[in-house]
Amino acid sequence: MKYSFLILFIFLLGCKTRIETQFSEKALQEQFISLDNKSLSFKEVITQYKGKKVLIDVWASWCGDCIKGMPKIVKLQKEHPEVVFLFLSIDNSLEELKDGIQKYNVQGEHFLLPSGWDGDFGNFLDLSWIPRYLVIDENQKIEVFNAVKVDDKRIVKALE
Predict the structure, then answer these.
(1) Strands, E, within 81-158: which ranges?
(2) Which residue, 80, 91, 19, 25, is CA-closest to 55?
(3) C-alpha separations of 14 from 7, 10, 151 in Å
């Protein structure tokens, strides 16, 4: 019985959810590519939306779970037209991203993350699966970190 409690305690300790309120300097310096093929740091990307609430969706056009979540994104966009929807893609190329945007009619701001899973931005998120969602407040603070479902209660609450 004692061992059961010890194992449970160790398991729960290992499952502690990481909470971040600011992006790391390395993540802010990660380079993204705009749809018009310009390279920008993540800091340059996110600073464009200062003063606005931002929902970030890390996705790829080949990701089935990402595509399944898109109808819920559209619903949130209708319910919260004041929110910026920022899609950060880990597609293999800008062409794949553009094709995915058109194929799935993804409305919002779009940038490609050329380093994919393995760059500083992906490492900051501990990116091992997509989609991944974050909510950034008007002061550029992370309000919701690393949600895996777009209908996560934390996202809904943060957007209200």
Answers:
(1) 84-89, 109-112, 132-136, 142-147
(2) 80
(3) 11, 6, 25
- Cα–Cα dist 126/95, whole Å: 26
pLDDT, the chain, mean:
89
Domain residue spans of the chain: 19-159
CB contact burial 137-150 (16+ within 10 A = b; e otherwise): eeebebbbbbbeeb
Q: For residue 131, is the peptide bond before it cis, meaning its omega torsion is within 30 degrees of 0?
A: yes
pLDDT in the model for residue 16: 42
Cα separation values, 115 from 55, 83, 89, 127, Å = 21, 27, 10, 12
Domain 19-159 class?
alpha beta
**Predicted local confidence at residue 119, as pLDDT:** 92
> Which SS3 state, helix, strand or coil, does residue 112 take?
strand
What is the model's pLDDT at position 2?
55
- Of 77, 72, 60, the residue nearest 130 (C-alpha): 60
- The CB-side HSE value for 125 (13 A sphere, CA atoms) comes to 28
Q: State the pLDDT at residue 17.
A: 55
**In this predicted structure, what is the pLDDT of residue 18?**
53
